[in-house]
Design brief:
By secondary structure, the protein is of the alpha/beta class. About 35% of the residues lie in helices and about 15% in strands. The radius of gyration is 18 Å and the shape is globular.
Length: about 180
Amino acid sequence: MTLEELVACDNAAQKMQTVSAAVEELLVAAQRQDRLTVGVYESAKLMNVDPDSVVLCLLAIDEEEEDDIALQIHFTLIQSFCCDNDINIVRVSGMQRLAQLLGEPAETQGTTEPRDLHCLLVTVSWAWDLPHPAQAPGPVFVNKVELASLVPAQRSATIGMSRGLHGGASFPRELF
């Protein structure tokens, strides 16, 4: 391996850590600001009602779940809908880390069913939804992470191990 190849590998690893940290920060901020929709079904409902409010779709799957045909069909439909509506898509692995970030209990102990973290939507914070600075109890921040520059042709980024959308088939406008 040459010096140039070593430097390129180091830079790629650093960029991936930076993207991962940005996505983690975005998810935590979106949850704190009540701009995070969790679950495949809940996400599909929101995208049917108000797709313009969605700025990012995060699809999460671990390696052992990649053979789940029903989940793959849902992902394909969601990805198609996101592409049709210019919604950025990020595929991630590491469901345990995602649950930890979002404050999910380690074990539900049979009391409640864990939330479906396979699909997360981050919605936009519209300017007219924010209180006037004089009325706000404290500083108001709107976080924005631009992922379109990573893969401009597909408007998606991949973190961890995942499979992309294959084929150019057309899907119905509504989900499920």
